[in-house]
Design goal:
By secondary structure, the protein is mainly beta. The protein contains 1 helix and 8 strands; from the N terminus they run E-E-E-E-H-E-E-E-E.
Length: 147
Amino acid sequence: MSFVLAENAKVYYNTGTYSSPTWSEISNVKDVTLNLEKDEVDVTTRASGGFKERADGLIDASINFQILWNNSDTAFTALQDGFFNKTAVEMLVLDGPTTTVGSEGLRATCMVKSFTRSEPLGGALMADVNLLPVKNADAAPAWYTQT
């Protein structure tokens, strides 16, 4: 049986350009969730035999995680700046390192939709981050496989 441990998955942001990316790992994260959900399109007609029929629609993606609150961490400040300055951040969420052929996941330029500070009593200060793909002149969001 083959499986991937979540602790070996990776989250990166691009510090280069789209055509020549420099993927910097965000190792300061925990509880990463890559949400992928399709819309359904109703294609029911009178010829559907009394049943609703559907077709696959658009894919809705979001990336959610917690990051330790650390103003000296460059990934943290890139996300914080993205939120306050309304600048997009290109992300790569993989099931393994970028150095491993076959690692796969979502590559998308994203807005930092939320950057919520969490202050649990007895715990570390965290930021709950929500990222959503945005329009990008370089490329649309895509499923990426490391070659």
